[in-house]
């Protein structure tokens, strides 16, 4: 595309790519100088020109201007980046059905359900914490909500591969840092809002303001799908420019679940919508997943899929790795791996464990808390865990440059009478939990979900993954013992 097609009065230079990181600059790119927390993109202008970049979009004055390079000074580089990223990739979000999902918990689950079920009707891609995924393509994730260039490029690749829709996880960071300013959303879904990321947003009010941004600029026929039972429902209902649709359990809603039955291997409920009722059978478990499923059903129905037509697919939703993932190697006790890393997320998993663990059997939890992130939640984790668990094994969880034992000590401050130990090495902590479990106990491995990395002192290091470790420990240390015991 010619630079002159992107900026008025710009020269007719052919542009081949967009770039906001000098380390990835290529010949004939435009480089956008973003001022960040650590660096200022304006400092890398000479580097990128040496790499063959042909245009610089900047806010601050540039001292040395090179011949053959176009310099475009703008007031707000991020806003320009968003506009150009959409234009350069031919506005893919305008021509796809775009679902945006935000909320503290449930984003990955709701978007994954949508990708799975909606694809039976119209091919649908997914961008989020787990991956960038469409058709047979699965690319590793960058951020939950990537930068505008990667978002629009991924959507353009999806369109080229025949995708007609995309389900996008929209984080509060993504909203606050303006990564989705030029994405055209058809359906925006709000799951819930609880205490999280206050290290970045400062206050819950700021966090709420960031989340609201998804709902204020929907396509002209856009729909805001809101959790009617969430304490912050009204704030979203008041701010949206979209048509308002609600889902819930406790309050009267457009999509309401009643008569909910939750078992270890699935759930069933009656869905009331427009005076009709439907029996929903799903392999998803736990009450909070009923909310996630309701949000996804409401979103897809508003996008034109009849509930009757979805029913067969809701019974066999693809297991989402690391999200309430049941690890079943034939052992006699329950093992669940979940990504929960907020007080609310933890409590919801514990409530479910309480429901499925029969009287006289134990709940054993393995978890820690991230270093350099929301340190106030540590003691709260301890308080919540000791309400539900019979035994707690504290361990490392992305300690960064903090001491995992110190973090565990802060969690312990909240633990009342529950038996607890600290095993720093996460593999050994999981092994200990699994070896100590008796028949019909429930082992919960919480915090990292499907992540196969651990943030330590010197950055991101490989980690086997909680689900893989749990499987290995059950097979190696436990099945033989149980067989011998029986
Ligand atoms: C707080 C935050 O989100 N920061 C993001 C932000 O960083 P920043 O503003 O500090 O940027 P910076 O590193 O100072 O660099 C400024 C500019 O100089 C450029 N640069 C920098 C160095 C260099 O050598 N050359 C160069 O060109 C950078 O590409 C950038 O454009 O812009 C960077 C470039 O796009 C992002 O990589 C970075 O994400 C960091 C790595 C991050 O960890 N973000 C997390 C917190 C995040 O966004 N998480 C949410 C989900 C959270 C959740 O729900 O759990 C997400 O959506 O993933």
TrEMBL record:
UDP-N-acetyl-alpha-D-muramoyl-L-alanyl-D-glutamate binds at residues 20, 22, 144-145, 171, 179. It is an enzyme of class 6 (ligase). Residues 14-89 form the Mur ligase N-terminal catalytic domain. It is found in: Cytoplasm. This is UDP-N-acetylmuramyl-tripeptide synthetase. Catalyzes the addition of an amino acid to the nucleotide precursor UDP-N-acetylmuramoyl-L-alanyl-D-glutamate (UMAG) in the biosynthesis of bacterial cell-wall peptidoglycan. Pathway: Cell wall biogenesis; peptidoglycan biosynthesis. InterPro entries: Mur-like_cat_sf, Mur_ligase_C, Mur_ligase_C_dom_sf, Mur_ligase_cen, Mur_ligase_N, MurE/MurF_N, UDP-N-AcMur-Glu-dNH2Pim_ligase. Its EC number is 6.3.2.-. The gene is murE. GO terms for cellular component: cytoplasm. Belongs to the MurCDEF family. MurE subfamily. Transmembrane segments: none annotated. The keyword GTP-binding does not apply. Residues 101-298 form the Mur ligase central domain. GO terms for molecular function: acid-amino acid ligase activity; ATP binding; magnesium ion binding. Carboxylation is probably crucial for Mg(2+) binding and, consequently, for the gamma-phosphate positioning of ATP. It comes from the Bacteria. Keywords: ATP-binding, Cell cycle, Cell division, Cell shape, Cell wall biogenesis/degradation, Cytoplasm, Ligase, Magnesium, Nucleotide-binding, Peptidoglycan synthesis.
């Amino acid at each position: 595309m010619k630079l002159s097609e992107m900026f008025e009065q710009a020269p007719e230079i052919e542009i081949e790519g967009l770039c906001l990181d000098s380390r990835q600059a290529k010949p004939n790119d435009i480089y956008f100088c973003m001022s960040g927390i650590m660096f200022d993109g304006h400092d890398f202008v000479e580097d990128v020109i040496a790499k063959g970049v042909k245009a610089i979009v900047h806010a601050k004055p540039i001292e040395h201007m090179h011949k053959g390079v176009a310099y475009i000074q703008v007031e707000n580089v991020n806003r320009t980046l968003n506009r150009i990223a959409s234009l350069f990739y031919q506005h893919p979000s305008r021509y796809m059905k775009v679902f945006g999902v935000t909320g503290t918990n449930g984003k990955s689950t709701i978007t994954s359900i949508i990708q799975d079920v909606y694809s039976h009707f119209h091919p649908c891609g997914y961008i989020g914490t787990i991956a960038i995924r469409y058709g047979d393509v699965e690319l590793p994730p960058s951020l939950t909500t990537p930068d505008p260039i990667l978002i629009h490029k991924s959507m353009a690749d999806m369109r080229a591969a025949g995708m007609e829709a995309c389900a996008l996880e929209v984080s509060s960071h993504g909203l606050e840092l303006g990564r989705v300013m030029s994405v055209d959303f058809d359906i925006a879904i709000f799951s819930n809002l609880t205490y999280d990321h206050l290290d970045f947003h400062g206050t819950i009010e700021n966090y709420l303001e960031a989340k609201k941004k998804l709902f204020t600029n929907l396509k002209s026929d856009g729909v805001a799908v809101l959790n009617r039972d969430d304490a912050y429902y009204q704030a979203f209902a008041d701010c949206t420019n979209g048509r308002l649709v609600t889902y819930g359990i406790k309050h009267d809603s457009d999509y309401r679940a009643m008569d909910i039955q939750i078992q270890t291997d699935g759930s069933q409920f009656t869905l009331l919508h427009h005076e009709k009722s439907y029996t929903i059978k799903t392999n998803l478990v736990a009450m909070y997943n009923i909310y996630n499923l309701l949000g996804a059903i409401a979103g897809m129905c508003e996008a034109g899929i009849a509930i009757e037509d979805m029913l067969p697919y809701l019974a066999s939703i693809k297991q989402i790795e690391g999200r309430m993932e049941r690890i079943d190697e034939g052992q006699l006790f329950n093992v669940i791996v979940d990504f929960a890393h907020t007080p609310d997320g933890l409590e919801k998993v514990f409530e479910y464990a309480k429901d499925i663990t029969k009287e006289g059997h134990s709940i054993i939890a393995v978890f820690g808390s991230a270093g350099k992130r929301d340190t106030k939640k540590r003691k709260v984790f301890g308080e919540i865990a000791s309400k539900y668990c019979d035994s707690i094994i504290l361990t490392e969880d992305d300690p960064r440059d903090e001491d995992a034992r110190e973090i565990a000590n802060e969690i312990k401050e909240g633990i009342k009478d529950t038996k607890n130990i600290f095993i720093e090495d996460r593999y050994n902590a999981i092994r200990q939990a699994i070896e100590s479990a008796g028949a019909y106990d429930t082992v919960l491995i919480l915090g990292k979900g499907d992540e196969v990395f651990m943030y330590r002192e010197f950055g991101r290091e490989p980690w086997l993954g909680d689900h893989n470790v749990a499987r290995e420990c059950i097979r190696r240390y436990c099945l033989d013992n149980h067989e011998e015991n029986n």
